[in-house]
Amino acid sequence: MLIPHFYSVKEFNFTDNQLKAIIELNPAHDVFKGHFPNNPVTPGVCMLQILKELTQQATNTNLFIKECSNVKFMALINPEVNAVLAITIDINKVEENFKIKASASFDETVALKVNALLTQQL
Q1: Which GO terms describe its molecular function (predicted)?
Q2: How far apart are CA 51 and CA 102, in angstroms?
Q3: Does 70 map to a domain?
Q4: What is the DSSP-derived secondary structure letter of residue 39?
Q5: Which CATH number do you get for residue 97?
Q6: Is 1 contained in some domain?
Q7: How many structural domains is the chain composed of?
């Protein structure tokens, strides 16, 4: 985990090239003290890192984000209000790379959608 104690994985199910996970953000983490004081918002780059880390866990491969496309931040994720997120990642291996189509949501609100290409990190 690049940012220790930033989130925890509550559920993790990977079958038929689809990962479904439930994570819980740590609203007391130092990241939220600066982003933003008294109005915490989960940084988009942290959400992308979480998706990468979950994909690594599912594929048992050390990965690097090579390319992101169609990145859509559709709702703010305030960890004090919505700490629990549902993550869905469709993972397809293409040669030495992994193409993912991912989303993160809370309640019935989709907060993030992204397509990305991850490559094996040597």
Answers
A1: lyase activity
A2: 8
A3: yes
A4: S
A5: 3.10.129.10
A6: no
A7: 1
User: Mind giving me the DSSP string for 72-120?
Assistant: EE-S---TTT--EEEEEEEEEEETTEEEEEEEEEETTEEEEEEEEEEEE
Assess if residue 2 is contained within a domain. no
In whole angstroms, what is the distance from residue 24 CA to residue 18 CA?
20
114 forms bridges with which residues in the sheet? 102
The answer to whether 40 and 80 are in contact (CB under 8 A) is yes
Q: What is the pLDDT of residues 32-90, one digit of tens each?
A: 999 888 899 999 999 999 999 999 999 999 999 999 999 999 999 999 999 999 999 99
pTM recorded for the entire structure: 0.96
Please give the residue range of the domain that contains residue 58: 7-120
pLDDT at 18: 99
Report the relative pairing of strands 97-106 and 109-120 from DSSP bridges. antiparallel
- Tell me what percent of the residues of the chain surpass a pLDDT of 90: 93
